[in-house]
Structure formats: structure tokens, C-alpha cells
Fold this protein.
Amino acid sequence: MVVFSGLEFIFRFLPVFLVLYYVTPAEYRNAILFLGSMVFYAVGEPHFIVLLLFFTVADWLIGRQIGKKGRAGAVWLFLAILLNGGVLVGCKIASLTVDASLLPLGLSFYIFKMLSYEADLYRGVIPRSPAFIDAAAYFTMFPQVTEGPIMRYSDGFTDRVGGELIPGHASHAHRPRHAVPADVVGHSDIVGHGRRVHADGIEDGLICFIIGLSMKVLLADRIEYLWNALSTIGYASISTPLAWMGAYAYTFRLYFDFWGYSMMAAGVGMMLGFPFVRNFAHPYASPNITSFYRDWHVTLGAWFRDYLYIPLGGSRGGTGRTIFNLFLVWLVTGLWHGGTLNYVIWGLVLFALIVWEKFAVRGLLRRFPFLGHLHVFLFIPLTWVIFAIPDLTQLRIYFGRLFPFLVHARAAGMESGDFVKYAKLTWPLFLASAVLCVPAVSEWFWKHRKHPAMLVLLLALFWMSVYVSANSGSNAFMYFSY
Amino acid sequence: MKNRFRKLFRGMRRTPLVLLLVISEALFVALMIPGIGGIYDVSDWNPVEEPLLLTGMERIHDGVWPWQAYAKETEQDGNGEAGEEGRNGAFGSDGSSETAVQQSGAAGDSLDAAGSGAAEASTAEDGDAAGAAGAATEDGDAAGAAGAATEDGDAADATGATAEDGDAAAAALQKAKESNPTYIHADHMPAEVNDKVVGAKDYGLADKNYLSPDDTVYNTDTEGIFAQNGDYYLFTDVDDSYLADALIIGDSRTEGLHGFTSMQKSTYFASKEGLSVYNFWDKGVNYYEPGEDAAKKSMDEVLAGRSFGKIYISLGINELGIGTTKKYYESYREILAKIRKAQPDALIFIEGMMHVSEKLSSTSNVFSNTIVVQRNGAVATLANGHDIFYIDMNSVLCDADGNLQADMTGDGIHLYASEYEKWHAFLLTRGIQTTAEAADGGAADGGTIDVSAAQG
């Protein structure tokens, strides 16, 4: 049920929760949100819910101390970092060395929300420490607890409903350019606004949810088939063209899975009255890798920038210092995604690429912008391959198939013309993926979303997604098909 | 209150998609309700676990649309669950004798052909089958009384028609058999005729819902369907030409055997989409003639299309998490009987399910070698050493704990492309050369003699 594309969530949890939420008077909605989130989380993770509750209480208590604005604030913040960071690192290590089940569901995400909460209290971005139920609802809210986005407290929580309106603040600079399509949330896209449930928000939230659902179920899950097929065949037995197809298949699979998931999360958030949280801003249209990561998993990148890179001094400390700060940020980014060596390599390769772009070829990229786009199209899929394959021996074999002249890794059992066979099966998915990477397409779509033909299309997409879910492995009631 | 409702209605005008969604869901469910008990099976149905909407969606996937509940209810019954029950019914105590009659009838036909002098190896095998049927009836206790009587009559007629064809041929056949190094004559099936079921380490995780108690008896009612005549053959090495008249049936693992090996002379019926013993007869599946592209065919079409010398069956992995071993066994048995009926001359090879990797077996309560081994053990009892054989490739693919070797698989279930040749090579060590198939020409007469031998 903890997967938004799961039918139990769509047809049971969500409608029931929404009705309860809407009939509850505004001042009690955070309590309902907290309770609903507990139910949601307990279904997916009946044991580690204790840990989530512990952190909820502990971080709220520490936040109260930080909120007092005394001299001890820094000490309390340090304690918060130590506690949250320590358990996060500890669980990651335990999940790698002892058992994978020791990494609680969504830990990386809710810990980051808690840390941002403490830091924002310390810096006064959150002006005074909130009531327990507000903080608890923020930490645990079900649309974000498993896979983000890492929303800030001030996005929909800052002013207590019925309380004094808190004006916007600087932290919202973390939103990327054109982060919120002008009309996504209608008139309510005011920074620091209070949370308000309204018809437009519900309708737009549902539209976001359906778009996200169909991207995940109809695109990502299906193109994943190709990627999985390669590991089943064994990387040593795939042709070089198929290896490249696989790299792009994984690239699209990851993008539409995560973007789709973020859209669903943002959609549910909007139905609850929160502002749209944009986690992806057309990264594949970026002119270089630096800005790719400004537009990819926006809330995580912004977190690292606001709470790590800038506190370290950012790019203001000279070239050497900047490079060191980037190194640190990308090392931690790699480790955050997973503790195995391939994630570290992934982070460091990106660090190298970004340094290369920033300092070596900066002028060249400026003169010939297509070179920067080429960087994105060529290097990003290769970095995803590193991201995707934890076993370094297997990774080496895969790169041997991508670049057969570098490493000889060919084994028996290769089907001649294998890529033709898979291209015939998957070309519509590749085509749709490529089209959806063009920003103008989704902007056009969003602009015309209220058109009757669009309504029919969205309805069809919804039922197609449900149909596919009902007949696939993600349907909890059925078994996988081999 | 009135104001709130007014506000609600005004809000609803601005949420057309929400409204459409709710209405369409209600319509779908309303459309499906009349199908309950008809096109939607409601035996052991739990709406909490399997909502109607989901059942409906799954049935659409099988090609059954909700509105079919309204049109021609009787026709639906024929094709739907009732039909399935019919198939099950064929294996009650009456059913087994029914099948036996059918089989001996078919054998009788081929005996006539043999009597009129058609001298083909396949006809000779018919003769063997007929002999087998006769023998079973003679031993006869296991077969239902009514069935035995009918069969006796049939067999007697057949023998009467052909027995006078001479002792010389009988002697020739016996000689040919004795010169076949894999031939054994025995009253009971010798232990070495079929492969032993390869065991595996039990990690104690297997879900009990998918197992049957250890003392479950599987082979009690196989007598009478698969008959015995005293002739057995041991496995022997063969080459690819042996597989030229073979039909290779299986799930995605078998699809890999087709895709990644040099075993290209055989015909394949192999699905990547979850072929199991439960959907075996319902699914359109990739059918590959040697050297040709896939065509979608159902099993019925394939069996009616041409006759095969050998039929290999590899199923089971998709239904590890469905039903008990006993249920699996029963469906498997039903499949064998139906194939046997359609292809009376074929040697059938039950391929024991390939085990899964340690990584999977030691963490999953479904993909567990404990379940795999129990199920292999159950279907192995269906082998009779005459025309149905159990072969177990795990002896060449697994480690000492009975787990599929880790460096042979990416997902723990399928072999790497580069490893499939091992499966192919294994099959080539498990050929059965019946004397009839080995000998040319005169063997057909031998078939008829065989029957009289069984009579005497």
C-alpha cells in the first residue's frame, strides 16, 4: 500500500483519507494528517514506525530548544545533526553489513526533512517552534515519507491556520527558475501562504497524480522490462548496441519512475491544500551537467546546497575551496543514495564532470551550447549505469559491452541482432520518453489541461494505468510473470 | 448547512475530473456486478483481498469483458469456470477409467493399422502403448471396475485381430530389445529408470500455504491412466537429431533455452508471460517452428496441429506462490493426461523445475527451493518409466546445497544466456531409445507381438 501506484492506495487509503480530511475542520487537519500518515507508514513498516515516532518526538523537543533563540541554540542544533545524522549513517552501514532490511522505509527522506526543520528554526526561517502536532504532521506526512520530495516546513506549514500570517522568506530562493508553472496552483502560489483546501487545488492535484501515475506505470515500469532483461541475459552476452539501449532504458526508467512518483506525491499534497512541490524541472533539457543537477531531484539538490554547500562557503572561497566543497557535496550525495562503492564512484564521477565543466571547458561550452547538451545526453546515461549496478565486476562487464574496444568481456550465448529484437518491442516507449523530455510538450499539456479532450485523455490514462497495475507484478494480489 | 452544500456543488463544477473518475469507477463496478458467480469465479473469493474491480480487470486481461456477463450466459458457462470444472471432473474416480477407455480405443486403431501392414516406427510405438494399456487392465485392480471391463473387451478384440501375425516377428523384436543396452524387463519400475529428485537446503522460510504435508500421497490414482507393460529403458546420450521431432514446452526459462542455445531443431511452445499449470490451456503462447519466427498459438492448437515424437515440459516457477503442492500436482497430472490423449505416441519428459539461487531461496518465502523440491517430488511420481519420464537438470546446475549456482544467474531464477547450453547438454544425456524407435522397418510387427506377449 505504501506505493502510490498500488491499487490499495488509490482505491482505498487515499479516498477514505481525503474524505476524512475534508470533513475535518481546518484546525484539526494536521492531527488527521499525522494519524493517517501513521496508518500509512505502519502498513509498510510495522516495526520501524517506532523509530519514526521517536525521531518525531525527539526532533520536536530539540526544535523547541533551538526555537528559544538562546545561546545554546547552536549546541542543540549540533545535537540534532549528531542524532539524526548518526542514526542515518548507522542504519545505512547496518543495512550494508548486516541485512538490507535494517534500513527503515523512507529514513533518508524524513531525516533530511527533520534536519532542515532544525536548521530553519535555528536560522529563523521558521520564526518560532511549532506545536507538536504541526511538526509531527510535517515530519511524517504520508505523501512524502517514503520517497520525498524533501519539502520544507515553510511550504504550507508556516502559518498556523487561523493564526497570524507569516510573510515569505528568503529560503524560497531554493525554488529553481520557473519551478512552479504559473497556473499550477492558481492564485495560491504565494510564498509562505497558509494551507487552504480549494476545488482548483483538488482538481489540479488529481491531474498531477494521474500524470505521475501514468508516467510510472505506463512508461517507467514497462521500459524497466528491457533493463531487467539485460541482467537476466547476463551483461557479458549482450551486444554493444543493446548495451547502449539498456543504458538509455535505465535512464528513462529512473527518470519517469522518480518524476512520476514525485508528481503523484505533489498531486496528493495539492489535494491536501499544500503548494505544488516541484522535484523535476526538465533536467534532460539542461544545457550542462551542473544545471542538470539543479533540475533533477530539485528538493535534494536544494537541500545539499542550502544545508551543506553554502554553509561550507559555497563558491566564495576561491577555486580550491570551491572544488573541495563540491567534492564533499558529491561524496555525501553518493553515500546518501546508498552505501555501496558504486554510489561513491557515481558521486565522484559527477564531481569530476562538474569540475571539468566549470573550470576546463567553460568557455567552450559557452561558445557552443550544443556541446553542453551533448554532455548531458552522453554522460548522464553512463553515470546512471554506474548508479544502477552495485556489483563492480558486473559493472566492469557492462562497460566492456558499452566500449568493447576498452575491455574484452564478451561471453557465449549472444543472440545475433538482439538489439533489433528489443528495439522492435520497445521503440514506442523510447519515443514517448524522448518526447516527454521536451519541456514545451508538458508546458503545452499543462496549459490545456482543462480542455474536455484532455479530461478524456486523463481519464483514459488513469484507467489504463489501473488496468496495467492490476495485471502486473505491482499488483499485490498477483505473482510475477516469468 | 445549506450554504455548505451550495459551496460543495459550486466546488464540484470546478473539479470535473474528480467527478468523472468517481462516476466511471461506479459504472465499472456496476457493470461487473452481474458477472459475479458467472464470468467472475466466486469460489473462495474474498472481496477484501480481491476487490471486484480488480477481478474484472484481470479477466479483461484474459479476454473476458464485463458485458459478456449479459450476453449468452450459457455459452459463457461452457467457456468459463464451468468448463474448468469439467476438466477437473475428468479426474475423479470415474474419470480415470474414462481416460483409460479413450486410450485403449486409440491404441486399438493403431493396431488395426499395424495389422494391415503399415510399417512405421511410430506405429510400432502405438503397439507398445496398446500393450501397456492391456497390461494395466490385466493387473487391473487400480482401474475402476467398469473401466477395466470395457478395456478388457477392447484389448481382447485387438489381440484377436493381430495375434496370428506370427511368432517369428516376436522373436525378432525380443532379440532387438535385448541388443538395446538401455532395455530392462521388469515387473516393477526399476529405481534407475527416472532421475532422482535433486534435494536442496531448507532455509525454513517457505510459506506453508504453498506446501502440502510431507505425508501427502500423490501417485495413488495414476494407475490406469499411464499403464505399464514390463519394458523399461534407461537414459542414454543422444544428439540434436533426436530432438528434431520434439516439442519443448515451458515458461520464460524455456524461452531462454530457445533464445540462447544451439538447440534449434526442436519446436517450442514457450511463454515469457507467466505460463503456469493453471493457465496452460487458456493462454496464447509463442510457438516456434525450427528456424521460424514466433506465432501465437494455444496448446490445443499445437497438439491438434501435428504429432510429436517427444514432448518436454518445464513449468512451475510462476505458480510457486499459488495453491499447494497437491493442487499443482493435480493440474500437472491433468495436463499430462490431456497431452497423452492428443499425442498418444509421444514420449513425455517431465523436466523437474530448475532450482533458484541461494540468495533467493534464503530470503523469499515463495521462491524457495523447499517448495520447488516438494513440487518436483510430487510431479516425479507421474513418471512411469515407459512413456513418461522424470528428468532433473539440477544435478548439473546446482551447488552442494542444491541452490542454483550464483555465477549462473542474474535474477536467481533465470540462467544467464551464456549458461543455457548446460541445459541443452543435459537434455542430450537424457534420451530414451526405445527398441521400436531404434530398429527400422520390422519393428511395427513387433508392436503387435508385444500385445500378445502381454496377453500371455
Q: What stands out?
A: Residues 93-115 of chain B form the longest helix (23 residues). Chain B touches chain A through 48 residues (CB under 8 Å). Strands of chain B lie at 183-185, 231-233, 246-250, 267-270, 285-288, 295-297, 310-314, 347-351, 388-391.
